[in-house]
Amino acid sequence: MPRHQNKPRRLVADGRVYLWTLRHQHRVLDSGRSADCRQTLTLYPQPAGTGGPLRIVFAEGSDRFVPGGAPLGSGDVGYVHGSTLNLHEPGAVRALLDAARASGWDASERGLVERDGWALLEAAVAARSTPAE
């Protein structure tokens, strides 16, 4: 039976459990057209109440893609001529979590913390391409 797309997924990193969700969002203009597409990855430290969520946002922009589906895959983010990740892959989520922690995010902080995903992308891609020791 397939997984329900809105049900949070579980990730264990360095002995800590996180639940994570991925959402594609955009604003609808008065004309009915979509604008400001973004992929939002949110990680929730567990157990609940032991730390605030981390929200990693990939907003569309020049030379960047954040499609919601065809012709590119759902969950794909990246640079038009460069690094890409698929945010449905647990390994990509783990790499972004590690990059956020390396840049100073602490899972025990209270309150929501939002980070620009583009600032973490290159470190996450590099970590995924490095063979495990």
List the helices and strands and how they pair.
Layout: E1 9-13, E2 16-28, E3 34-45, E4 54-59, E5 64-65, E6 76-79, E7 84-86, H1 90-102, E8 113-116, H2 118-129
Distance between the termini: 35 Å
- Low-pLDDT segments, ≥5 res: none
**Biggest β-sheet: count, sense, barrel?**
5 strands, mixed
The Rg value, from CA coordinates, equals 15 Å
Mean pLDDT across the residues is 88
Query: What fraction strand?
Result: 35-45%
In N-to-C order, the SSE pattern is: EEEEEEEHEH
Helix content range: 10-25%
The coarse overall form would be globular
Summed up, the helix count is 2
- Please list the strands of the largest sheet in the order they lie side by side: 1-2-3-4-8
Tell me the structural class.
alpha+beta
Number of strands: 8
For this structure, the quaternary state is: single chain
Walk me through what this model shows.
This protein is α+β, with helices and mostly antiparallel strands and 133 residues long. It has helices at residues 90-102, 118-129, and strands spanning 9-13, 16-28, 34-45, 54-59, 64-65, 76-79, 84-86, 113-116. A hairpin with a 4-residue loop joins β6 (76-79) and β7. The model has no long low-confidence stretch (mean pLDDT 88).
